Amino acid sequence: MSWSDYIVMAAQHSKGSARHWFRYLRKYIDKCGTVFSKKDIEDLFNNESLTPFQRVSIKAAFEDGSPTRQHILSLNSKVDRNKILLLRESYERINSGK
């Protein structure tokens, strides 16, 4: 099974779940230079079995500096629990009107 065949299979398994789709992409995003060529990405972009969202996101995922790529790279990074709690507290303050 080629890399692009695997991604097509992953796309079929993750239809309807962007989170699941991004997790599949995360497995290969670090290896972009060695696993996927520009032609592979274009072939995936033009593949009819991928949804429009998957096609656009796969193209953005392999562009350096794109917000989609940054999001995918951050999926498996450690999260500082204190930062999440501070964000939640500030959100609650804003919504309570204080």
In brief:
By secondary structure, this protein is mainly alpha-helical. It contains 7 helices and no strands.
Overview of this protein structure:
The structure is a single chain. With 98 residues, the protein is mainly α. It has one domain. Helices cover 70% and strands 0% of the residues. Helix 4 runs antiparallel to helix 5. The longest helix has 16 residues.
Labels describing this entry:
single chain; 98 residues; mainly alpha; elongated; 7 helices
Provide the gyration radius in Å. 17 Å
Categorize the overall geometry. Answer: elongated
- Unreliable stretches (pLDDT < 50, length at least 5) are none
- Give the DSSP E fraction (strand runs of 2 or more residues): under 5%
- Provide the succession of SSEs: HHHHHHH
**Helix segment count?**
7
Q: How would you characterize the largest beta sheet?
A: none
Counted up, domains total 1
* Cα-to-Cα separation, first versus last residue: 57 Å
Helix content: over 70%
The tally of beta strands, per DSSP, is 0
